[in-house]
Amino acid sequence: MSDFSFKEMSIPGAYVITSFFSEDNRGSFVKSFEKDIFAEHGIEFHCNEDFISHSTHNVIRGMHFQLYHPQAKLVGVISGKVFDVIVDLREESPTFGKWGGIYLSSQNRSSLYIPRGCAHGFVSLSDDSIVSYKCDGKYDKETDTGILWCDPDVGVDWPLMDLSKVTVGARDQKQMTFAEFKKNCKFEYMT
Question: Which position among 15, 113, 120, 133 bears the catalytic label?
């Protein structure tokens, strides 16, 4: 058996979390979240929504966030492998406009804690990636938005050989640029 481990990324408040794992002759067991252990590491997380997405190879989803009462997210991979990316959109942050990425897979049993005020997305690096998202905070359809996944001002270095062969949903192809975000958007946090 192994315990949880928490490693802060270069983006303040974002953590790579290695889950509790146990294995024996029956198979394996993974615990990806325990409220008290997360709180001991400074992460107060209350799940409001839980999603599972299925993606084929070279599918890009993102870069999503909501402006009104931004959500924190806990993202992990049930099957397959993804390159998971966050972009810091918090004006007061020393990493405002910077991105960070990490490989998440069913083999490494890691998850990513994404703080409020960051955009999130990923690219599937396997034929069958199943991703779990847990969201802390109420969903707000009116301010659910995103920034363009390929915005050169952000400069995400997606680990793909040929970006012309990615599959991106219609919504994600029309997201705003980082420059448009800076000019037109402000987060409204809960008080």
Answer: 133
